[in-house]
Amino acid sequence: PPSDTNTTLKTIRSFGSVPEGIELSPPMTVPGTQDPRTFGFVLSQNNLTVLDTSHPTRPEISIRLDLGGDPVMPKEIVFAPNSASAYVRSDNARDVLQVLLQLDTTNPGTNDYRPQLAELGAGGGPTDIAVYDDPSARRYVLASTPNTGEVVVIDADTAQFRSVGVADPIDRILLFPSPTEGGAAPHKALFASIGAKLPRLWVLDLDNIQDPLTQAKLREIDLDQPVRDVVPVPGRDLALVVHDDNRTVLGLLDMTTESTSPLLGVGKLDSYDFSPSGSHLIGATDGVSRVGFVALDNLHPPDFRLDDPPERVLSVQNGKIFVDHGDPTGHATII
Q: Cys-Cys crosslink for 263: which of 174, 250, 268, 296, Cβ 3.0 to 4.6 Å?
């Protein structure tokens, strides 16, 4: 909010093409500056535009993505806030684009940063990417490339890569433990084929994966039902596996033992969330005036009666659950 409440600042932006989406970075500190800032990345055909949301009057910086060939459409951004960088996956692009924000003091009064670009050789049109740092703080990018039947492990510093053959068209990569939790470096990567709805998952050991003399350890996990979605459980080495479009057939994958357990009696999950510690799955079904809980340690499924049907459940950091009943005039229950 402006200090002068009688003053309103409006900033109008125009782009070369219609934006398809906007991703906001976590707070990132450009090397050489002091304060962390949130940057907006605008995705549009053939362009990626970067905005400094802390300084809205400063001009945006646009990055041209196509080189005269097929139109390039950025689809996914994974941020690495410790190094003020982002990694971009695009349709019709063979490689992953690294955008590193660096200090630029050549134009006083305008942006104090500039994006430095590098292409990391995935080599096959990546369908998903993930970024992590190993225990030595060396950064790696995982990219799935179904066109080549591989998952590529790229050293972000040297752009050297290692390919691991996977016959399935992988389009989902999850890391365990999650690097977004701010904990230890991930030890395993979980791969799934969501678009193909295949009844199996793959696990890749990440320890020493960068050593070309170490054989890649890739293991298959066979399931009884096709995989429609895979969601990580916050703060836990667990993944929720969704097996049907109505979210009534679910499983829980333990990444430590690489074993699965069915979630029985959950019902259709029209809306769900996890408790902040990852101890419980919280779910609601349209038209049913209850909120269900599944204790992920023992899979016990108690529920809680409501006065009205829920439309959406949200778990917040203070241990409370916000239930939105979908009334346009406002109607909620707090548990």
A: 250
